[in-house]
Amino acid sequence: MDDFLQKLRQKVKIGVVGGSDLEKVQEQLGNDVVEKYDYVFPENGLVAYKDGKLLGKQNTQGHLGEVLLQDLINYCLSYIAKIKLLKKRGTFIEFRNGMLNVSPIGRSCSQEERIEFYELDKKENIRQKFVADLRREFAGKGLTFSIGIVCSNGFQALPAVWQGLVGA
């Protein structure tokens, strides 16, 4: 595939778009990915490279501001502390360039624990209730919340203006 894309690149511009950060994209496509392609857009375009050089970068912190970001994080941690689950693990909030990933059970849970949480969530709507509460609490503050699939065991919080950009 790489050979094909490099041959094609001699005729047209080639870009790579990925949802992961640059390190993960490099892990998947090689450390020289920003040099091998005309455009590279990690984190669904919130980071942009052209001809091997960084064009621009946006992040949640810069867009929302530290006060709102801390209010959101503190609210989520407080909410998670009050939820009774069969198990809780670590990394309840993962700070990413383009979003916060919030996981009531914790992102460091095992695959078996993810499935267990998913089954409980289907019955008790843990994430739906959490997101509904956040939508009420942070209404009008430029945030949107999106519930992930089974493997995510959580949901994303991100600036509303990025909704279609980062997959919410």
From TrEMBL:
One of its GO terms (biological process) is protein N-linked glycosylation. InterPro entries: HAD-like_sf, PMM, PMM_cap. GO terms for molecular function: metal ion binding; phosphomannomutase activity. Its EC number is 5.4.2.8. Pathway: Nucleotide-sugar biosynthesis; GDP-alpha-D-mannose biosynthesis; alpha-D-mannose 1-phosphate from D-fructose 6-phosphate: step 2/2. Alpha-D-mannose 1-phosphate binds at residues 96, 107, 114, 152. It comes from the Eukaryota. It catalyses: alpha-D-mannose 1-phosphate = D-mannose 6-phosphate. Belongs to the eukaryotic PMM family. Involved in the synthesis of the GDP-mannose and dolichol-phosphate-mannose required for a number of critical mannosyl transfer reactions. Homodimer. This is Phosphomannomutase. It comes from Phyllostomus discolor (pale spear-nosed bat).
